[in-house]
Design goal:
By secondary structure, the protein is mainly beta. 12% of the residues lie in helices and 39% in strands.
């Protein structure tokens, strides 16, 4: 449709809901995407500098409106099952323990060597793998001690063959005003909120 005949405000293009800029080696193009409430299935869009207005799917518009936080990796702790050889757990106020794997068999290696229940170890690993970040915490003015991260309520370290260091998380206290969440410090130092 010709832009001269259309009111960009009515189409949700002035201002746009999102602007996607595509860069190639020698040029860039920007697509301005309108508000998703104008039409039930489609959204108006335009190329910056062009006079034509066109329709795109609502799903494209929703994808275009994502922010950086929506695109962040929400994995809290990752590892390669084939390379995992040791798990160390250090709960506050209790004795730390370690599990070691020989082949496919897990055993307690600390405090005293003895066999370990493989189903319980796999359940622990499954629970760790399923933990995802619900929110990322701004480290400015963050009270790590008050959040139970210094020292942590529990620290879990996973050691892989040939890894430079362990994959590690530190679990803190419940998030203030969100009893269903706890603070976790990932191995990269990022502090996140996870479901408790």
């Amino acid at each position: 449709e010709q832009a001269a005949k259309l009111d960009r405000k009515e189409l949700g293009l002035d201002p746009p809901k999102a602007v996607l800029t595509f860069h190639t080696k020698d040029k860039k193009k920007a697509v301005r995407v309108g508000r998703p409430d104008i039409s039930p299935e489609q959204v108006y869009a335009e190329l910056e500098g062009e006079k034509a207005v066109f329709l795109v799917s609502k799903s494209f518009a929703e994808a275009a409106a994502k922010n950086a936080g929506d695109l962040r990796d929400r994995t809290v702790l990752a590892w390669d099952d084939e390379k995992l050889e040791r798990i160390a757990v250090a709960p506050a106020g209790s004795d730390p323990f370690e599990l070691s794997r020989e082949g496919t068999a897990w055993a307690l290696s600390k405090p005293e060597p003895e066999g370990a229940d493989a189903a319980v170890v796999e359940s622990l690993l499954g629970a760790l793998r399923s933990v995802k970040s619900l929110a990322f915490v701004d480290p400015k003015d963050f009270d790590a001690k008050g959040a139970g991260l210094e020292p942590p309520e529990v620290r879990v370290s996973l050691f892989e063959k040939e890894a430079q260091g362990p994959g590690e998380i530190s679990v803190g206290k419940a998030v203030k005003d969100k009893a269903d969440r706890v603070y976790v410090r990932r191995g990269d130092g990022m502090i996140v909120e996870v479901a408790s």
